[in-house]
Amino acid sequence: MMTNGLAPPLWRQLQVTAGVLQAIRQGQSGTAALEDVPTPLRSGVQALSFAVLRSLGRAQALRKLLAPRTPPAAADALLCTALALLWQPDEALYDTHTLVNQTVESAKKTVAIKPQASFINACLRRFLRERDALVAQTEYDNTARWNHAPWWIAQLQVDWPDRWQAILAANDAQAPLTLRVNTRRISRLAYLDELKAVGMAATLVADSGLELASAVVVQQLPGFSEGWVSVQDAAAQLAAPLLFAGQVDAAGLRVLDACAAPGGKTAHLLEFADVSVTALDIDPVRCERIHQNLQRLGLAAEVLAFDAADVSRWWDGVPFDAVLLDAPCSASGIVRRHPDIRWLRRQTDIAQLAGIQARLLAALWQVVKPGGRLLYCTCSVFKAEGSAQINAFLARNTLAKLLTSPGHLLPGGCDQALPSTDNPLGDHDGFYYALLEKSTA
Question: Measured between alpha carbons, how far is 142 from 156 in angstroms, rounded to an integer?
């Protein structure tokens, strides 16, 4: 709780952070777990939680050395939270002795952990005394060294034998705050001047993006409430330009955005060209998010709550000129923005998600008119959800032609290939894009 306007005490933030970690270990998403955190604590707990999740592999390996028998779940979560924050003193968010003292204080003030307070204190004091030797022992553990599940590391080694280390390292970095300028409201250069006027530095990325030198709360951005800008990674900003690439005039085209929530790409399609957009999402609550985002930006689309693959329930039989399919995926390309993903995903999820993607591709290909396009994309770095998925689709569909597209974009700039663009993409997320054209034959 906040007292007299002061920040919550560190012991309390550590207590809640350990609770977030325990929820994630039980299968809850980090986003949902943080939404349950009281507002006065949320920003501090999010920063601590992200730091913990980015070092959780190391912390778990250290805990096994300090306590081979797994402690009760709540105590283990608090101990691993502390070890994740302690193990690199040069990068620690707080002084190491302060962290230890406040962790023990947190244990004493938590009913479920209080009986283990002395045990946690002993483990952490031992870690401070023997840090170098203990850390050295964990260097032989790939999960500790790379802070990803063993199957994830192995899959990247297969998919990207020359880049897997760079991908894993990029996943542990902080992602930049990247904006997409709504050029129907303000030009990108004019908005850059608006940022400079309030002391915010930024660089041009993609076709309509700006990468901020330092992250800020979005409400502090000039004109955010007025719909001048949206938050969107530079790689995600490629969707609209790719879908309309090479077309002299896209005005009047009938476009479908499938799996559209929360509506970032829907909005970009409408900002980019004078098109008519139908946005689909299976979740009615998330459809409301699409409405809210479009309203802020001064845009309008038909928004429908249906399973995109269940074509007979929502399609009126009139083919679309263009379809954007941002398919459900592992989200393995946005781990640095959602560090819980690497601990929540299971190896079996990839095949299951690939099956959903194949089902969506087959269904939505029906609604593309002859001569029309379908842009398939996922925020994944796994080839099963990218190039392998599209190669299998092309083998099954002789009327489908793969147009020039960037393919796999890897996080942090360690790309296999980059699309031609007036500005570099900067420090972008991992994505896959494939632009398909339906033959008129």
Answer: 13
The residue range of the domain holding 204 is 178-231
Residue where a domain terminates, one of 126, 147, 168: 147
Q: How many domains are contained in the chain?
A: 3
Is residue 46 domain-resident?
yes
Long-range contacts of 245-250 (CB under 8 A, 24+ apart): 245/403, 245/404, 245/435, 250/274, 250/275
CB of 336 within 8 A of CB of 429? yes
Cα 49 versus chain centre, distance: 15
Residue type, 422: D
Cα 219 from Cα 223, distance rounded (Å): 9
| Residue in this structure with the two tokens 């998403």, named with its chain if needed | 29
Residue 201 near residue 213 (C-beta atoms within 8 A): yes
Q: Does 160 fall in a domain?
A: no
Whether 36 is in a domain gets the answer yes
Residues linked to residue 303 through DSSP beta bridges, in sequence order: 279
User: Are 221 and 302 in the same domain?
Assistant: no
How far apart are alpha carbons 54 and 154 in whole angstroms?
Answer: 18
* 153 found inside a domain: no
Neighbours of 101 (CB within 10 A): 15
- Find how far residue 197's CA is from the centre of its chain: 30
Q: 258 near 324, Cβ under 8 Å?
A: yes
Q: Which residues are part of the catalytic machinery? A: 379
Query: Where do we find the tokens 């379809």?
Result: 323
Residues 38-83 pLDDT 10s: 999 999 999 999 999 999 999 999 999 999 999 999 999 999 999 9
Q: Which residues pair with 256 in a beta bridge?
A: 278, 323
Tell me how far apart the alpha carbons of residues 258 and 357 are, in angstroms, rounded to a whole number: 12
Q: What is the pLDDT at residue 183? A: 95
Does residue 290 share a domain with residue 224?
A: no
pLDDT for the residue 418 = 47
Of 231, 246, 271, the one marking the end of a domain is 231
Nearest to 17 by CA among 79, 59, 101: 79
Q: Which two tokens stand for residue 82?
A: 């502390």
pLDDT per residue over 399-436, tens digit each?
999 997 789 999 986 664 444 445 688 899 999 999 99
Residues 227 and 353 grouped into a single domain = no
